[in-house]
Amino acid sequence: MAMSEEVEIKNGFGFKLSPDDKKLLIVYEPCDDKIDLTFNIFKERFTDSPFAALFINDYLVSEFLRRYKNALDTESFECEIGERRDASCNVVVSIDKMQAFFSLTPNFGGKEITLADVKSVLAEKKIVWGIISNEEIEEALAMGRVANLLIAQGLPPVPGIDARFENLVNDARERKPSIDEHGNADYRELGDIAIVHKDDVLMQRIPPVPGKKGSNILGVIINPTGGLNTPFSGDKKGVHLNPENNNQLLADITGQPVPVLNGIIVQPILTVKHVDFESGNIRFDGSVVVKGDVKKGMKMYALEDITIEGSVEDAQIECMGCLNIKGGVTGNSKLTVNGDINIKGGVQGYQEITEFETNDENNAAKIITHCSVIVGFSENFSIEAGVDIIVEKYAMNSHLMAGNAILTGAKNSGKKSSIMGGVTWAMMLVKGTIIGSNSGIKTCIQVGSNPYVQKRESELKILLESHEKEQEDIHKILAFIDTHPEKGKAETLEKLHHTLSKLIIETEMYNAELNELTANMAIIIDAKVVAERGVYVGTEIAINGVLWKAQENRGKSTFRVKDAEMVIGTR
User: Fold this and answer.
1) SS3 call for 554
2) Do 235 and 368 share a domain, yes or no?
3) Do the domain assignments include residue 158?
4) More confident residue, 441 or 417
5) SS3 at position 446
6) C-alpha R_g of the chain
7) In the chain, how many domains are there?
8) This prediction's pTM
9) Which of 83, 106, 130 is where one domain is finished?
10) Contact at 8 Å (CB) between 363 and 357?
């Protein structure tokens, strides 16, 4: 046959090129020396052939092996199994045009890629900056196959540094009670309000540092970011530029420093005669002094301290500093303060606060602070302090809750009781001249655990009880619809199931929080209650879960818990 004349046939097959010299063909002719031809045998034969440099397609080879095995004794055929391939290369430019990556595919019996070819591709991509050396490119070409070689790298710009403003005023308000040589805290002496004085240096402007330009691999110049030459704020109330250094701000007056964008201003302390309809509600980002009273229904807010030389009647006051009131507080007033509170005239609400109303959020006769409270007396008022509560005369029908100690009766006003009625709840100590009343009014005292944690525990139990009731109601409705399908609409069922799922998830969350609170509830071993003169019938004292009820009047007493038993001493 003509095939056998052109191709060297062995074991029934041989190799040849297509007429255009690009395709690799395999020829089969029937023979007597046909073998069990495998892929490995085929590869050995191909490697030893003159065409070993060409590319072969494994899939086409497998197809030939199948036909070879099944070929008839009279059948001759030829098929394509490979080709001659030129080497190829590609350059990929990053999105930011700062890098280029070179890839090379080797040739299979075809043309090789040269340095000139690579230069041509780079030129087509318009890459002109940061290209590696010719030697490095030729080393890569010699490897035959390359993947993602960094062939060009741009020069990133060096960012500048914007003008900066350094506040030289220490505006932290860490006002604390003075401590004497015996370690006793005087909550009446809290120190002066921090202020700045005329010609004090308030702020330093640090000039900008310019950046350096860069270039991407296309030769495009990249300008640096930053280096903005920002001037001081145009708002210069109470300040001026230092004539000897225009990068400094000096105080014009003595007053309250307030930072503004790219600057600082000085505001004098706001002083008003009264807070009433003439002044309107007060909102001030500094300290406020009221020479007179805060009238009924008015509101005040200050970012710093508030000093009121008169009294407060049925008003709302909030400040982030300390609150000092020389008069008293009456009505459903609500005081929310971040620092210490000192009310010389005492506090008196409109209605009696009982044990069952302590969590009533509608009761506006309330004081809340993160620090300590000193009041002359307390009647029908709720006071919550993060540290201590000091009632100088007496507490009557009030709810007092402190994170540390509650002390009453420091200046007995002649009342027969220092703590009478209501709930007094502290973590470490409750101390009063007399606890309870000879009329037998219920007076609850509790120490030994964190009142805020226990308050949250009570809230969680109420929420869990409510959720359990709601789930029971939904289950009853679903059971009714299950037995009366015609009564339930699809949207109703969907809403019920959605609500039930929400309740179940919230219940799990509340239970987890309750378990964590219970597990981490700290018991204060040294917690105690001190009655300096006596305890009346109707008084209940709870320490670390141990409850004691006064069945008869007692004299001077100190209550502690030891070995889960209430221990009562006289000192």
Assistant:
1) strand
2) no
3) no
4) 441
5) strand
6) 45
7) 5
8) 0.50
9) 83
10) yes
